[in-house]
Write a structure and sequence with these properties.
The complex is a heterodimer of chains A (196) and B (95).
Chain A: E1 3-8, H1 9-15, H2 23-27, H3 30-38, H4 42-61, E2 75-78, E3 83-88, E4 91-99, E5 103-109, E6 117-122, H5 128-147, E7 154-158, E8 164-168, E9 171-172, E10 176-182, E11 185-191
Antiparallel strand pairs in A: 1-5, 2-3, 3-4, 4-5, 6-11, 7-8, 8-9, 10-11
Helix pairs in contact in A: 3-4
Chain B: H1 4-15, H2 22-26, H3 42-56, H4 62-65, H5 71-84
Classes of the chains: A alpha+beta (196), B mainly alpha (95).
């Protein structure tokens, strides 16, 4: 299982006012609000924790859960400038966030030891259909390269819960994937099942 | 109580600034999904909920918010909350 999320900083500054009355209370638990208020970069922390929650939520849906909209159900814990955890119900999900001047990217996986393949790239168009398709293509190219599978026989489909799955000649592969795009940036993450 | 057409029209006005798929917005109906169809950014879904609270002077707790992924669920929550605030949903006449 894997989840990811990318946030375009410039786009976020234009699109969302996190200081709007009521916003913080709808998204963050009082403990998390405390962290934000005592941070010397509240903007950065707000959106890092948002991307932690979003990526953990995507992973959580892969456990067969129904979709919901309630960021408060996911609780962030910060371990370092990159690493952290998100707790939801019985699950503790490990997150790694990269903060760049232009974007924040987080990937979430069940274990510290997981090493997903992930990549952030520029998007040339803002049209969401284009962005979604382009991001799918980047993911499939990466999978084809690393597994020696024929790119033309690979495709992505989404389940009713909007979870992406990868198929080869119509047969579902045992790879977990996650896709995200926002503003000028897109990213994919994928992971092979651990062979013991 | 307002009729459904009016409620949907009001909802459209609230949602409009956050929509990223204009085609889906033109054909908006009860089953329209905020994220899948309208491509609303999930952070802007918080804005939509706050705008709904302001517009109807209601408070949407996180348990209610949880369901608000499509137009139908949003309308249901609004109706329920307006009901909570004193306007009876099923008025009983006493007398």
């Amino acid at each position: 299982m894997i989840g990811n999320d990318i946030i375009d900083i410039e786009r976020t500054l234009l699109e969302t006012d996190w200081q709007r009355k009521g916003f913080i209370q709808k998204v963050f638990h009082p403990d998390e609000q405390e962290l934000i208020h005592s941070s010397d970069d509240p903007f950065g922390l707000v959106w890092r924790m948002w991307s932690m929650k979003e990526s953990a939520y995507k992973l959580f849906l892969q456990t067969g859960q129904d979709r919901f909209f309630n960021p408060l159900r996911l609780r962030c814990m910060i371990s370092s400038s990159e690493e952290g955890f998100v707790k939801i119900e019985e699950l503790q999900i490990y997150t790694r966030s990269k903060s760049d001047p232009d974007f924040i990217f987080t990937s979430a996986s069940p274990n510290y030891a997981d090493e997903p393949v992930d990549n952030v790239f520029n998007l040339t168009k803002t049209d969401t259909h284009f962005q979604s398709k382009f991001t799918h293509r980047q993911l499939l190219k990466s999978i084809a390269r690393k597994t020696n599978l024929n790119l033309r026989r690979l495709n992505v489909r989404k389940t009713d819960q909007n979870v992406p799955e990868v198929f080869y000649d119509g047969q579902k592969l045992g790879i977990s994937v996650s896709l995200t795009h926002h503003g000028d940036y897109g990213a994919y993450s994928w992971i092979r099942p651990i062979v013991v | 109580m307002k009729d459904k057409t009016q409620m949907i029209a009001e909802m459209k006005t609230i949602i409009k600034p956050y929509v990223q798929d204009q085609e889906a917005f033109e054909s908006l109906n009860e089953n329209t999904h905020f994220i899948d169809d309208l491509k609303v950014n999930s952070a802007n879904l918080v804005d939509i909920i706050l705008d709904i609270e302001d517009k109807y002077d209601i408070e949407i707790d996180n348990d209610s918010m949880e369901k608000m992924l499509n137009v139908k669920a949003a309308l249901e929550v609004v109706e329920e909350k307006i009901g909570d605030s004193g306007i009876p949903r099923n008025p009983e006449s006493k007398g």
